[in-house]
Amino acid sequence: xxxxxxxxxxxxxxxxxxxxxxxxxxxxxxxxxxxxxxxxxxxxxxxxxxxxxxxxxxxxxxxxxxxxxxxxxxxxxxxxxxxxxxxxxxxxxxxxxxxxxxxxxxxxxxxxxxxxxxxxxxxxxxxxxxxxxxxxxxxxxxxxxxxxxxxxxxxxxxxxxxxxxxxxxxxxxxxxxxxxxxxxxxxxxxxxxxxxxxxxxxxxxxxxxxxxxxxxxxxxxxxxxxxxxxxxxxxxxxxxxxxxxxxxxxxxxxxxxxxxxxxxxxxxxxxxxxxxxxxxxxxxxxxxxxxxxxxxxxxxxxxxxxxxxxxxxxxxxxxxxxxxxxxxxxxxxxxxxxxxxxxxxxxxxxxxxxxxxxxxxxxxxxxxxxxxxxxxxxxxxxxxxxxxxxxxxxxxxxxxxxxxxxxxxxxxxxxxxxxxxxxxxxxxxxxxxxxxxxxxxxxxxxxxxxxxxxxxxxxxxxxxxxxxxxxxxxxxxxxxxxxxxxxxxxxxxxxxxxxxxxxxxxxxxxxxxxxxxxxxxxxxxxxxxxxxxxxxxx
Length: 538
Fold this sequence. Notes:
Elements: E1 2-3, H1 6-21, E2 30-35, H2 37-43, H3 56-71, E3 78-81, E4 86-91, H4 96-113, H5 127-145, H6 148-157, H7 165-173, H8 182-195, H9 200-216, H10 221-232, H11 236-249, H12 256-263, H13 273-294, H14 296-312, H15 321-332, H16 341-358, H17 363-366, H18 371-376, H19 384-394, H20 397-404, H21 407-412, E5 417-423, E6 428-435, H22 438-447, E7 454-457, E8 466-472, H23 483-494, E9 497-509, E10 515-527, E11 530-535
Parallel strand pairs: 2-4, 8-9
Antiparallel strand pairs: 1-2, 3-4, 5-6, 7-8, 9-10, 10-11
């Protein structure tokens, strides 16, 4: 692995100038390395972070990918990681014209990393440097504690997909409340929703009222608003006082790992303090990768959108148009079976830009039902570019897809949901168009996104002798085969019995020999490495 030569670096710097002129924003300093395909295989299990801590599973992945590469050799174009400075890796045999296209793609990724709000937790430090410090720490602990370090890594990694990523993001978003006091925040987010259980329409009307008070008198408008609240709800003062007392005594734990690390008597013994260091490394590493997992479609779509636009306008494309078209089609073509995040993300951004330019996000357009009128609508607002930059800053994959995938988008790109069935006559699996409805296509995209289970600690049922976990069922059950091993690992970290309340889907035989799927609540209990399960009464 070595830095690119000065000739190639000059090409990258020229691409930076053009990218900034188009509106992309990123740090001046970047590092570009030349790597072989074998280097890519070695680095990929570590998320392309060369300084990541060593772990046996990474070695297994390397061996597996080497065997796959021997059977199906491939040539990845680039990889870029979100560090300060940003680091990107390239093949050593790329011609200049291809590097220009790849550099634009990489710069758009860097722009996304450094401006999307979901990456805010990563903006203030260099993860590669932190990972190196973590690696040295774990190596030192291995020399002192041996294989027990790997056991702790194993157990912590079994639940590192349960990190409270959205709670962390909400903490950053709460920084931008424009000075809203705790009592107002409590009124809207706790009192009205959890205690009074008011309808969303009522909450919206109260929000408008609050804003009117502030407009009339910015200095003491909030005081007048709260005075009216207390007049309407005599119990409000007492409820708020009790709430603040509880908040002062109770730490708001972000996730299970955070809770176990702080509350486990076993981990807090002097001789086991080193385990908490290992757990923190695993947890913080998982949190670092969370935004990348949750923005795959938007991030790759953003990079593809800009590499195409910038390269097509670059005079250095002359003579290589057909080669570019072939590679670009391979990256951004729509899969009729399966999903290509590059293709969907890029086309949805083009759709948003076009709608913004035509004024089709305005309410007047939403009211139009005539197909021809909708097709020919054009208010020439030309706000499409600012619209996609807003999307780049504030959206993740779920909000991106859920907000903008509609029937116009599905029809414009001839999209559909594919079904699969067995032809009983021929015994052949057939694929067919199952639906062309936007809601069905949107649901398919959402179901294919990363969505780990939500599991929290029930503090009321938890004691020193028992950690009580609750799986918040969202229509998908946990993988039953993984439950026992994972619970044994958590039991080790907790130092005592643990219980997990979850919902499982089981087949139930009906009187006419038909079967139906029913949901049943069960409790898993792990004590002394033995896992049992009992069904809760309905």
